[in-house]
Amino acid sequence: MIQVLHRACDILELLASQIDREFRLGEIARELAISPSTCANIIKTLVGRGYVTKVHPHKSYTLGPMVFQLPHRRNYRLSLVQRARPHLEALATQTGETAVLTIQEQDRFYIIDEVRSDRLPPIPFDPLYIRDVMSKATTRVLLAHLPEDDRDRLLTPEQRQAWNHSCAAISGQAVHRHLDRSSAGFAAPVWQGPAVVASLGLYLPLGRLRQTDEKKLSETVSQAAQAISHM
Questions:
Q1: How large is the average pLDDT for residues 147-163?
Q2: How far is CA 144 from the centre of its chain?
Q3: Are residues 39 and 132 in the same domain?
Q4: Beta-bridge partners for 62
Q5: Which of 58, 120, 196, 200 would bridge 145 by S-S if both were Cys, CB 3.0 to 4.6 A apart?
Q6: What is the tens place of the pLDDT at every residue in 49-90?
Q7: Which of 25, 47, 69 is a domain's end point?
Q8: Could you list the residue range(s) of the whole structural domain that residue 189 is in?
Q9: CB-based contacts of 185: which residues, under 8 Å, 6+ apart?
Q10: Does residue 181 share a domain with residue 114?
Q11: pLDDT at 112
């Protein structure tokens, strides 16, 4: 039973990894190393519950409407999203870049809201969760504010060794700047009393970074994060 649940989650995550693409049954089974018959039975159940949609006449599958309805049905983090949304919109409008709100839940980091820039090239984000926790400024900020034992559980031994040197510095920054292969991220902690409950981030392509006043951008992100925080 537990294995079936894991496989159902794997199927949903695969469909979400390329949200505009239609996946055939055989592709899903091969990608996840599931037997075609087992895969078909799980997908049939997910289709029946509305979490997966069967696309006719292609006989392929995409995420279903229930996946997108769940966040609207839950009060979980709703007040945080409602409080943050106007500031994400203002931040994206003011800078012309993509603003996101990221949280940690158990061992994963999720983007729970975002306002995307219309400018090209776009900044790609996983619609479910951030897989490489060291790759984004927002997750690095959240990691830096975790207790050491919790942080160590989320990192590989190699990551721990590299990370512990910079953790204290990041947790002391009002805004953390991090570059990956294609984008620059600026992130600030969102506080609820003495605890960091989220990270506000602004992302832009590396090609536009040289044209940007980084100091002004950092101040804008910091001010927005402070406005969202409840101290």
A1: 84
A2: 17
A3: no
A4: 53
A5: 196
A6: 888 988 876 689 988 877 876 665 455 567 888 899 999 999
A7: 69
A8: 74-228
A9: 136, 137, 138, 177, 178, 179, 201, 202, 203
A10: yes
A11: 84
